[in-house]
């Protein structure tokens, strides 16, 4: 959608929801989220993370992925209000679930008193445990389609999709487009690149160089 837009996705196939990932994978997802936040913060940008699961049927479900979209820092501060308003306006009559599920409540309750886990590195045991068992994983379920937006690794807002025919798969991108004043063509019919595997790797390398990812690449600790 914009410069810096990227995706967090497991290497091994996971159909549909990230909630199907085990604790080890969630440690890695949490590490990527924290490092991406730090990287974009160095460029005076905030970040939102989006996951849209339109189907829980394995044959229809797409590979699990969480989109990371950077925003100018001031607009990132307004993002929760934009998403709250958009979720309240979702047209799903006779819904059995709340339109907005606040996944930060339990995450906040899990933060140890006097310990600001946001200031800790990726090896901090309590920080990892909060991301593993924080609000998102304790509140949402992989048994139903859903949309979720994170404003940090510890939670955000969720919405259970009870009728996939009435929920727009580009919902999250549409909200971001509204924040950034982008046209519908950006989120409804994004340009698909026809490229080889090597070209895709080259594009990823260009992204890393452009944003200085090497400085924040936590996977180097594993080498």
Q: Could you explain the architecture of this structure?
A:
There is one protein chain. The two termini are 32 Å apart. The chain is an alpha+beta fold and 223 residues long. Strand 5 (146-152) and strand 6 form a beta hairpin. The longest helix has 19 residues, at 23-41. The chain has helices at 23-41, 73-88, 104-110, 125-133, 135-139, 171-180, 184-188, 197-211; strands spanning 6-8, 45-53, 66-72, 101-102, 146-152, 155-160. The protein has a 6-stranded antiparallel beta sheet with strand order 1-3-2-5-6-4, sandwiched between helices. The chain contains 8 helices and 6 strands.
Task: Summarize this entry quickly.
The chain has 223 residues and is of the alpha+beta class.
Radius of gyration (Å): 17 Å
Mean pLDDT: 85
From the spread of the alpha carbons, the general shape counts as: globular
Largest sheet, in brief, is: 6 strands, antiparallel
Counting helices, strands and paired strands, the structural category is alpha+beta
Layout of strands and helices, then pairs:
Layout: E1 6-8, H1 23-41, E2 45-53, E3 66-72, H2 73-88, E4 101-102, H3 104-110, H4 125-133, H5 135-139, E5 146-152, E6 155-160, H6 171-180, H7 184-188, H8 197-211
Antiparallel strand pairs: 1-3, 2-3, 2-5, 4-6, 5-6
């Amino acid at each position: 959608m914009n410069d810096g837009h990227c995706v967090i996705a497991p290497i091994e196939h996971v159909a549909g929801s990230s909630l199907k990932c085990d604790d080890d994978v969630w440690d890695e997802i949490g590490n990527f989220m924290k490092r991406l936040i730090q990287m974009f913060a160095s460029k005076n940008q905030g970040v939102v993370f989006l996951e849209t699961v339109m189907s829980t049927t394995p044959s229809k479900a797409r590979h699990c992925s969480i989109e990371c979209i950077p925003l100018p820092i001031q607009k990132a501060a307004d993002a929760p209000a934009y998403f709250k308003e958009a979720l309240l306006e979702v047209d799903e009559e006779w819904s059995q679930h709340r339109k907005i599920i606040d996944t930060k409540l339990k995450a906040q309750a899990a933060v140890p008193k006097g310990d600001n886990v946001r200031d800790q590195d990726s090896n901090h045991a309590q920080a990892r445990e909060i991301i593993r068992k924080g609000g998102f994983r304790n509140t949402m379920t992989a048994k139903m389609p859903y949309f979720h937006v994170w404003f940090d690794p510890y939670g955000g807002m969720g919405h259970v999709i009870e009728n996939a025919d009435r929920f727009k798969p580009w919902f999250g991108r549409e909200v971001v487009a509204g924040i950034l004043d982008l046209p519908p063509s950006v989120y409804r019919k994004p340009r698909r690149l026809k490229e080889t595997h090597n070209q895709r790797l080259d594009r990823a390398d260009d992204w890393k160089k452009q944003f200085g990812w090497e400085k924040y690449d936590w996977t180097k600790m594993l080498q």
